[in-house]
Amino acid sequence: MTHLPSLSPSRHARQQRRATVAGRSHVRRFPSIVAVLLATTLTTGWLRTGTIRAAETRTQPPNVVLIISDDQAWTDYGFMGHPDIRTPNLDRLARQSATFVRGYVPTALCRPSLLTIISGLYAHQHKTTGNDPAPTVANIQRARKAGKDPRELLIEHVDRVPTLPRLLGKLGYLSHQSGKWWEGSYRRGGFTHGMTRGFPHPGGRHGDDGLKIGRETMQPVFDFIDMAVEQHKPFFVWYAPFLPHTPHNPPERLLKKYRTPDRPLPIARYYAMCEWFDETCGQLLDYLDRKQVADNTLVVYVTDNGWIQSPNRNGYAPRSKRSPYEGGVRTPNLFRWPGVIRPGRREDLISSVDIAPTILAACGAAIPEQLPGYNLLPALKAGGPTPRTEVYGEAFAHDIADIEDPEESLLFRWVIRRPWKLLLTYDGATGRMVYPPRDMRPQLYDVFADPHETRNRAAEFPDVLRELAKRIDAWWPVTRRKTLTEWSDRPVPVRSYQPPLANTPPAGRRAPKRPSRRTTTPPKPTHNKDTASSEASQRPRAASPTPRDSGTTTRPRPNILFFFADDQRNDTLGCAGHPIIRTPNIDRLARNGVLFRNMFVSHSICWVSRTTILTGLTARSFGRPEMPDAARPEALTHLFPDELRKAGYRVGFYGKWHAKMPRGFRPADHFDEFEAIFRNPYFKKLPDGTLRHETQIIGDRAIRFLQSQPKDRPFCLNLWFNAAHAEDGDKRPGIGHYPWPKVVDGMYEDVVIPPPRLGDPAIFASQPDFLKRSINRERFFWRWDTPEKYQTNMRAYFRMISGIDHVVGRVMAELERLGLADNTIVVYSADNGYYMGNRGFAGKWSHYEESLRVPLIVYDPRLPEAKRGRVVDQFAMNLDLPATFLDWAGVPIPETYQGLSLKPLVDGRSPQRWRTDMFFEHVTLRPLLSWEGVRNERFKYARYFDQRPVYEFLFDLEQDPDEMRNVANDPKYADTLQRLRTRCDALVAQYGGPLRPYTPRSKRRVPPGRRSAAPKAAPVGKR
What we know:
Helices cover 28% and strands 15% of the residues. It is of the alpha/beta class. The radius of gyration is 33 Å and the shape is elongated.
């Protein structure tokens, strides 16, 4: 184990203060600078005669030029070893500078990072933690009280903190602002000259006229330098061009250099932008030489935040901008002052909070006591190590939840103490995060050996984790936001705080109270006893609906919006802890609603699952003897859309139908608005000749439905997607097999998808022969059988789910716009699970958890704040959804329904009696994948009844949650096996009886009459 020196935070703080004071004692006034420089020159002999003026002959404090790149990765320079990007001017500057290759910014977002650089304060100190104020109640109330715009209140932070131009102005410095500047007019920062007019002027959000520098002209900076030289004044230049920031529109002469057949165009454009920025730096440095002021000018270089270019779109990849990872916060730092600062490449840790005290020291200015950074000047002059042993940082949401309370938007804090970097995740308000935090578990990386943070070592080094966590707390004590500082083997989803938005309450309603702070301890599952109580006796019954013309003042009946995906397992959502997939809109529903951890389907195949939801019945209950997966007419008397329509609901359906109904059944007769939209192909040709993805078309139809909704009638809108089902007829990996909407082009392209967790070939080898010969294995070779195919198809599959999430966001935004959001319950689920290569399988269809578990999220905006953001552990099933829809609507639940209403669980109540086990079956794809079984809290039993002898599985889920060991032949489990056999027999009888014995299609003759009983289960077959 690597041990950390035992330096307590308090001792560290004392040493830091002593080092800072010691540094100031040498540099407060110019005569002291001369003395130190002369002594250094005489003792080291490193000053080269003839190239610069001797330090002891200086008659003025140094000029300062601060060059700040905008959105550039720490790797993307020639001097940092990039093989393709050319940066000859910055390479030259690096050779002449003290070049720190391990520099950092505390916050990887431009506005807070820039204010840190100019003030020397961390974002939590200057309180500008994001780019914009969020439209929260807290911010609006502050603005109303002050009688100002929230943006103006945010800009006022710069008035309350020290800035380099103000502090240098006391010594007679002239200063010029150009480029990126968020804090109003340049004068607000203390600059004497500048370009940005600032908010509320047009374009004043982050630079207006200042953004022309570099892209259009360098003349304003040159004119300022001319003026300062003519007036014999020392000057400070803030050169922060909008480069290489998007838009990536480099000159064609530069783009031609980087365009190659094998390089994506977005990458080529970004590379060219980096060289364009370098050219402008060369022009500025050359102008200093031309004006003969370079010898007495301190040039400092830093980047505001990192950027990893996405290869297929004009945007950044995960783990770069706005993230606390190296790709977001690491930057080279250069310090050049000829004859004073010793050039050389340094591995020391430094932070951008060190820039302000170092510049102030170099200029002979007093360093404010509140600055947390180090004065690096003594180390820069001597060429020795800096006093910094640790680097601290923080990450916040882009939109600030409370402009006076940094904790509200806190998402990460981190520390680096070589070689370790610890990231702690917090439950702050995420706002419009592109890549929000997903897992609360701590992350510990050896960033010296693993600079791209590929291996989390938190579980291996708990002592290091605890020590660094203590240092983070000592650096900035956080009192309300929650985090985890101990490792957990299971992902812990982030339950982000969601502040009330100012436009959320309808007119006349008071703003909701601030949500209570939630703990980050994962909820413990509820353990139910295994009983044989029937679900029918447990089901709560809804009261009769209140007539619309009764004159009562009861709350209006809620609208219901049902998003229904295809082939999606329960863990493939950000809110479920998935480390890669991005579903911010669905995650937002979970944060403000209820996430069901144990949601299952009774039959894992698409058309049966969908028919179950329509009818409220299992397959053998709605099916026919000769076709148990196809509905018979008498099973269709209480379809949930019919029951809702009879109660006055307007019911719409768009998307994948696929239910096997009897001859003469017309789906459109059961909905007010109905359009079946299938895949094959996913991209449909529109009347104007363009192509549009099925997922987006369903979103289009949903918005049209909402826009035509009568105000005096509730609705139930069903959006049943074909995604993320593969296009089975097109086996080309990626866009062929999993066609994704254009809106998610490029997502996940730079992500390496981990192999299936249960992908060991030995796991497949342990399966019985009939499963090895099933369609599960056949389709494995369509999708996952090579590493290259796996990576391509997984990225494409993830894009399809993110495409659904995009439509969720579109529809939710339209609900808000139309004023329907406050009374619309939103449900998100899927028809069945998905193996994705686990166990050597594709598809679903069989008895393992990956096949049966699906997501379920319910967002009811009427819930009080204290009831939101919960995780429910009770068993839920797709059988329950139609009963729940009717219960919400106040419609009596038909006696034929076999599920339970989930309404009590959503409301936060604990029913006295709830199901303690679940019945599963698969009556299609006979004989290899026909089975029936039962699962309770601890055990799962499944029998493949078409095999001879009947093949049985029994798993002890408490001891073996991955279902790796079949204990059906273990004598220790004989009683349990018999008990679950008996329970399965009882449920089979309850739901319709045994199926007719399987007959090959060529020999099949179906006699009239009732289905016959299957033979009694044979002894357990050989394992």
